[in-house]
């Protein structure tokens, strides 16, 4: 019974913290996204890694999945979790050549 | 045993109740968080990436990133043809593309001034001042976004903008088609270059864009140095190249052979112009941000900046060394640099090595 209780707490804590399997990674070296298209389930995080030599400013204005990381300096990592199914255009505001798409499914 | 067993069950039961309560709270939090998140994506806390590799700073390795490309890129949906480029050149230099008949594309983007106009602020229809300086069109073939604020995605669209703008050439497109169609020489040139369109908006856009893509910066002393001629530029310019790529961080934006990555930055100028921020009002770093111009033919292109507010290269270097206005939108790459006087003059010497030999642009005879 105690085992069940611990397991329940672990699952709840997991839900609360969002801890799960390692998320998909997008790198930004050379002012380029490492992927042009990724598919994710709604609620699954995507990790943006700035392994470049300059700051980036990743954002999206796609309906329901808007976000703005602001200036992400070299050597920083940020997770973004898309909640709404649909196609999301992800761009860098600083470097307009950087474009990628995220397909969020149910 | 019975009593102890009952106690054990009671303890376990208590654990179960507690854990269920914790779970319920957790699920409630999760549901609340997801409800709030329906309007936008969730952004987690930023943390550090440990495997960051440092950029190459050795001079020989850096030089490899500045080699000129061998070919001009033309888009698949508007490939180069000599007839298209020749028609585009005539249109480019023809003042009849403006309603007043006095302003051509070349009025503001003139080969006499490094394909700009030498003015701090451009002048449009009826000699009215515009909001910003005329940018050069040199190396536009390699551009990925156009105008100081990036509001135009390609050269074909850009070509029509100033023609139709009421404050610039002030020429309604229908009136332009009528005017060009009335000139026999143009009718035949359009028919030869665009047999499927003739005199049309599509043809005007494509011809002007094709001609502009042929405007490429001249072979400069810097290029000869990159190709191995150590005598091509003075020692101070070589030192300036190193400062440009390291301490002064210029190459963080003025990157590659054309010295731009088309990036947008607030560089701390006192201008009230919001630049790129007009189109991305919610993104802090885009307020007062303008597109990074290339640096080729830079000595012919004074005054500098989007507002023409700095008249010499030495003062441009002083501005970057100072860092300008420290505000939230200012780029993280801009700030006091602590350059020595020698480093500043080396930077200017390097910038002067980016201009090609003096060339003569031949203005075409226009159709009648």
Short description:
Chain A has 106 residues and is of the alpha/beta class.
What would your notes on this structure say?
The complex is a heterodimer of chains A (106) and B (368). Chain A has 106 residues and is an alpha/beta fold. Chain A has one helix at residues 2-17; strands at residues 24-27, 37-41, 45-49, 58-60, 67-68, 76-81, 86-92, 99-105. In chain A, strands 2-8-7-4-5 form a five-stranded mixed beta sheet, with no helix packed on it. A three-stranded mixed beta sheet of chain A has the order 1-3-6, with no helix packed on it. Chain A starts with a helix and ends with a strand. The model of chain A is unreliable at 7-19 (pLDDT under 50). By secondary structure, chain B is mainly α. Chain B folds into two domains: 59-68 and 219-352, Cytochrome Bc1 Complex, Chain D, domain 2 (Orthogonal Bundle), CATH 1.10.760; 82-213, Orthogonal Bundle (Cytochrome Bc1 Complex, Chain D, domain 2). In chain B, 38% of the residues lie in helices and 2% in strands. Chain B has helices at 2-37, 59-64, 82-92, 105-108, 155-164, 173-181, 184-193, 201-213, 221-226, 235-245, 313-322, 341-352; strands at residues 42-43, 47-48, 264-265, 290-291. In chain B, strands 3-4 form a two-stranded antiparallel sheet. In chain B, helix 3 (82-92) crosses helix 8 (201-213) and helix 11 crosses helix 12 (341-352). The longest helix of chain B has 36 residues, at 2-37. Chain B is globular, with a radius of gyration of 29 Å. The interface between A and B is large, with 52 and 54 residues.
